[in-house]
């Protein structure tokens, strides 16, 4: 059902198979070359933008160090991520505290460590920043609607209405902070490029109103993440995103495009990972059942949390895949004792009829939001291990 060639070259596949052969499953194999390639492609597509890697997508030291070598900056969400990134020798002026939900003592901690750029979307949070991170640069996250076309929406919980963003930027100036810019996130795995157009238009309105009415000159737009990885649902190529978004920026800002920040997570690391899994059990629920249940040694609690609501549809391959193999529809499920641990049921994957217990199943494009999202030891299963290929 899945055409492997659309996701990975034969040479890279063979290299992966040789590397992973002896590894115990489940595990993730991350190809650092892919991350490097994706980073360079993103930077070349948006030559004017500063890249802030959203560390939560894959917080492994190997990944952070690679992004550091490539000249990237970092979007950090907690003091623990901060400690990790600083311990790798990254300077605090390349770090943004992008989480709008934070404790006062954590703001103070970031400030003490040298971080001077903070996101916010509320009055209370801004008050804390003014108190515990005086003088810092502030960008305000605005609400954007994105649930219909993003496979993993980030709406509602983050951001505020543009009118409130306006008030917050005035409040930040009045409380001794530096009003710096606007941010938004159009939703992760956003397949509708037009969503950036709406967000940029709202941003332009704020830039103009704040300058005309309050003499506040903002200088930065943080366009968040949302760029795609390669799953089953097709997306435009990154070059399409880049040319369209660049056009939106020039349509609204002319020759005075502000400093642009991008915060890629999924698009940098998603395609780099392959989750290597093994079939634990294959069964039918009655003798004439049309579907096989295929239980893997990975599931919602072992890396595949983004299959909640069957939102992210990973390309799935098996060691029995062959153009001539007969296939049948399956329900894919994980190994734990929670009945929520069904991976795909509504959307029927087709797997070879001769698939057997013990065969390997490969979940492609599993480099983002997997290893760090796996449970610690639900049912005693250990956290998902990651191995890195150069
Ligand atoms: C998670 C997150 C990102 C990364 O989004 P992707 O869609 O994975 O690229 C960027 N910015 C913020 C603030 C985030 O929370």
TrEMBL record:
Record: active site: 337 (proton donor)
The protein's annotated pathway: Amine and polyamine biosynthesis; putrescine biosynthesis via L-ornithine pathway; putrescine from L-ornithine: step 1/1
Annotated signal peptide: none
Pfam families in the cross-refs: Orn_Arg_deC_N
SUPFAM superfamilies, per the entry: Alanine racemase C-terminal domain-like, PLP-binding barrel
This protein's UniProt keywords: Lyase, Pyridoxal phosphate
EC numbers, comma separated: 4.1.1.17
Residue numbers bearing the N6-(pyridoxal phosphate)lysine modification: 56
Protein name, per record: ornithine decarboxylase
């Amino acid at each position: 059902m899945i055409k492997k060639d659309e996701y990975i070259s034969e040479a890279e596949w063979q290299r992966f198979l040789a590397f992973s052969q002896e590894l115990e499953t489940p595990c993730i194999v991350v190809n650092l070359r892919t991350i490097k390639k994706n980073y360079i492609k993103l930077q070349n597509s948006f030559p004017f933008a500063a890249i802030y890697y959203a560390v939560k997508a894959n917080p492994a030291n190997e990944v952070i160090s690679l992004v550091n070598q490539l000249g990237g900056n970092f979007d950090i969400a907690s003091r623990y991520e901060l400690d990790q990134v600083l311990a790798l020798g990254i300077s605090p002026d390349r770090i943004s505290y992008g989480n709008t939900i934070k404790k006062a003592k954590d703001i103070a901690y970031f400030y003490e460590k040298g971080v001077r750029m903070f996101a916010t979307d509320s009055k209370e949070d801004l008050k804390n920043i003014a108190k515990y991170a005086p003088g810092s640069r502030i960008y305000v996250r605005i609400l954007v609607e994105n649930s219909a076309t993003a496979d993993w929406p980030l709406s509602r919980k983050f951001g505020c209405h543009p009118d409130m963003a306006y008030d917050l930027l005035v409040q930040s100036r009045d409380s001794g902070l530096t009003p710096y810019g606007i941010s938004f996130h159009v939703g992760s795995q956003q397949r509708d490029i037009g969503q950036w157009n709406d967000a940029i238009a709202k941003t332009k309105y704020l830039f103009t109103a704040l300058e005309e009415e309050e003499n506040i000159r903002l200088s930065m737009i943080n366009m968040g993440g949302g760029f795609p990885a390669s799953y089953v649902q097709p997306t435009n190529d990154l070059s399409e995103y880049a040319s369209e978004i660049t056009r939106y920026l020039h349509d609204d800002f002319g020759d005075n495009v502000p400093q642009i920040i991008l915060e890629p997570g999924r698009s940098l690391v998603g395609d780099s990972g392959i989750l290597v899994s093994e079939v634990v059990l294959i069964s039918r629920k009655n003798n004439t059942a049309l579907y096989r249940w295929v239980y893997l040694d990975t599931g919602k609690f072992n890396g595949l949390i983004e299959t909640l609501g069957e939102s992210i549809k990973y390309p799935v391959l098996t060691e029995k895949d062959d153009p001539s193999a007969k296939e049948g529809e399956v329900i894919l499920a994980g190994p734990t004792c929670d009945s929520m641990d069904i991976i795909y049921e509504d959307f029927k994957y087709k797997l070879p009829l001769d698939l057997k217990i013990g065969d390997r199943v490969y979940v492609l494009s599993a480099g983002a939001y997997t290893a760090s999202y796996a449970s610690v030891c639900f049912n005693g299963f250990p956290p998902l291990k990651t191995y890195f290929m150069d």
